[in-house]
Design goal:
It is built from 4 helices and 2 strands; from the N terminus they run H-E-E-H-H-H. It is mainly alpha-helical. It has a domain of 48 residues. The protein has a two-stranded antiparallel sheet. Strand 1 and strand 2 form a beta hairpin. Helix 2 packs antiparallel against helix 3. It is flat.
């Protein structure tokens, strides 16, 4: 039997993806008053934008947030870049 362990927030990218950090901050993390968005902030921005655009239910929104924050499924790269602004 396989059991899924819950990760609340992904704070760093996997060691198997050494270029993930620079690519993320260069391409998808938007500038803020205090620096750059974190992965959690990008998840919040993009999922809230999808929720509004697609009129998603709270259950659908929660599923999308969990999948994206755990890096199991992602929005398109263009949506990560400009979604929710």
């Amino acid at each position: 039997m396989v059991r899924e362990l819950e990760k609340v927030h992904q704070t760093e990218f996997p060691e198997t993806a050494p270029t993930a950090n620079p690519v993320f901050y260069r391409t998808y993390s938007r500038k803020t008053e205090t620096g750059r968005e974190t992965w959690t902030e990008v998840c919040d921005r993009t999922i809230n934008g999808l929720r509004e655009l697609g009129q998603l239910t709270p259950e659908e929104t929660d599923l999308l947030y969990r999948m994206q924050s755990q890096l199991k499924a992602l929005s398109s790269g263009r949506w990560l870049w400009v979604g929710g602004v």
